[in-house]
């Protein structure tokens, strides 16, 4: 039987290359249904819901196991009650605040809770919003810095055509996008062996009258290390004393803003530092919610330019809205509120501390290997990285180890460090809620097995096709 014959009622000009077709298992084919469906064109006819479900379900099985993905910061597990809440609220459009006033009110409660958690002087006088994730939140934070700088420059009768933003060379790619999209010069301070994060060193060489702000990262993507916000602020204090330039800080707390308040409560990085104008975090990272939720909060309403705020009808009044995205599900906002209520401060502390304990346990085990030396030990957020010990071997590298671990289901990325450290390749583990001590021990044993295999090689592994793995 030809493909056209099997395709039943579908057009006769379908490509007979089976790569362009989805072949149904005869077990799932119902009478009258085609047994072949096109992959890249919408089918002419209908399928039963059971058939469509089975096709997608089977194809998605080829994805990796999310629980074993140690490359991503994004949450991969929630409990059954959260799943129920997710299903009940996925049809609510977050932007329709007048139609879904309860969800809108819960959104406002969440960012006010975060303002309080981050030591805002007057949480009720702050302003914030939910977003799709930290990338959107960072765009808003950067844009607010730019708008405030522009307003100040115009008031002084000065040009506004050359704004710049100061960042670590290890910054997340969303900041590169911000600078590109909003015509801001990115001034990258390179990390090095001596300065492994942006720490205020030589900051005066980058700041000038066109600087809209400095980004400080609480949990650098490459390694998980904190950038010392108070130390950066002190360097900016000195610059202001010397030059009069008043430069504010946006804290990218995608991960650390939901770790530090619970596990390092005495660390001053948030609104306790006067130069911090705004903070973002990812609810879907260590906020412990499924993908699709971020948050940003400004110190006070004066920190957010009024021109960025739009107002919508809400219970006979007006409610501010300022996200870049428009229509999106309200479910993740409700899930964030669920986690805040379910865990509370003490619950978050226990969950986050458990992840930190496992990260530091794993880091200690990795440090025992002769082949490796730690870059950091997971003492900040539950993330750490290591590199090959110089001179250990010429027969294999961390890319080979990553590929070997992938064969066992583990996703442990290897990638080069940025700018001044391009010859340094590291491997990184992100510990999230769901990686237990038992799984951690299984990972250590798998690493041990693969390192022993690689160390037993008598000639070099092939290097063709090697490249960085996804690590953002």
Alpha-carbon distance between the two ends: 48 Å
What fold name goes in the CATH topology slot of the largest domain?
Aspartate Aminotransferase, domain 2
Strand proportion? 15-25%
Most strands sheet: 7 strands, mixed
Report the CATH superfamily of the largest domain: Type I PLP-dependent aspartate aminotransferase-like (Major domain)
* Domains (count): 3
Number of strands: 15
Strand arrangement across the biggest beta sheet: 3-9-8-7-6-4-5
Gyration radius (Cα, Å) is 25 Å
Average of pLDDT: 91
Category by helix and strand content: alpha/beta
CATH architecture of the largest domain: 3-Layer(aba) Sandwich
Annotation field: number of helices? 11
Order of helices and strands: HEEHHHEHEHEEHEHEEEEHEEHEEH
Percent helix range: 25-40%
CATH class descriptor of the largest domain: Alpha Beta
Low-confidence stretches: 3-15
Inertia-based shape: globular
């Amino acid at each position: 039987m030809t493909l056209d014959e099997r395709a039943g009622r579908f057009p006769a000009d379908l490509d007979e290359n089976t790569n362009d077709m989805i072949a149904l298992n005869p077990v799932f084919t119902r009478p009258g249904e085609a047994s072949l469906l096109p992959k890249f064109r919408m089918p002419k006819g209908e399928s039963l819901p059971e058939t469509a479900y089975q096709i997608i379900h089977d194809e998605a099985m080829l994805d990796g196991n999310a629980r074993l993905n140690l490359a991503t910061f994004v949450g991969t597990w929630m409990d059954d009650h959260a799943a129920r809440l997710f299903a009940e609220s996925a049809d609510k459009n977050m932007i329709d605040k007048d139609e879904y006033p309860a969800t809108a009110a819960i959104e406002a409660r969440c960012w006010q809770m975060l303002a309080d958690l981050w030591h805002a002087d007057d949480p009720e006088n702050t302003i914030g919003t939910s977003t799709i994730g930290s990338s959107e939140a960072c765009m808003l934070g950067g844009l607010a810095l730019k708008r405030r700088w522009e307003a100040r420059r115009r008031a002084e009768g000065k040009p506004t055509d050359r704004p710049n933003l100061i960042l670590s060379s290890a910054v997340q790619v969303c900041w590169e996008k911000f600078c590109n999209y909003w015509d801001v010069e990115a001034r990258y301070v390179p990390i090095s062996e001596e300065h492994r994060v942006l720490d205020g060193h030589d900051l005066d060489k980058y700041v000038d009258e066109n600087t809209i702000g400095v980004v400080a990262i609480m949990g650098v993507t490459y390694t998980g290390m904190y950038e010392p916000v108070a130390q950066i602020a002190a360097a900016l204090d000195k610059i202001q004393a010397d030059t009069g330039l008043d430069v504010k800080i946006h804290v990218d707390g995608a991960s650390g803003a939901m770790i530090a308040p619970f596990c390092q409560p005495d660390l001053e990085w948030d609104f306790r530092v006067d130069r911090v104008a705004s903070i973002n975090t990812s609810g879907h990272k260590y906020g412990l919610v499924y993908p699709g939720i971020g948050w940003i909060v400004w110190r006070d309403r004066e920190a957010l330019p009024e021109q960025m705020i739009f107002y919508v009808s809400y219970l006979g009044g007006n409610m501010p809205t300022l996200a870049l995205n428009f229509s999106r599900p309200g479910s993740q906002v409700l899930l964030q509120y669920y986690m805040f209520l379910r865990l509370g401060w003490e619950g978050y502390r226990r969950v986050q501390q458990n992840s930190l304990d496992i990260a530091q346990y794993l880091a200690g085990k990795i440090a025992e290997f002769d082949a490796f030396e730690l870059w950091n030990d997971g003492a900040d957020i539950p993330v750490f990285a290591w590199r090959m010990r110089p001179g250990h071997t010429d027969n294999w590298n961390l890319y080979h180890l990553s590929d070997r671990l992938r064969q066992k289901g583990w996703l442990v990325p290897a990638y080069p460090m940025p700018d001044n450290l391009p010859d340094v390749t590291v491997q990184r583990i992100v510990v999230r809620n769901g990686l237990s001590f038992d799984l951690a021990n299984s990972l250590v044993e798998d690493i041990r097995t693969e390192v022993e295999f690689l160390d037993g090689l008598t000639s070099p592994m092939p290097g063709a096709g090697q490249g960085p793995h996804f690590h953002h």
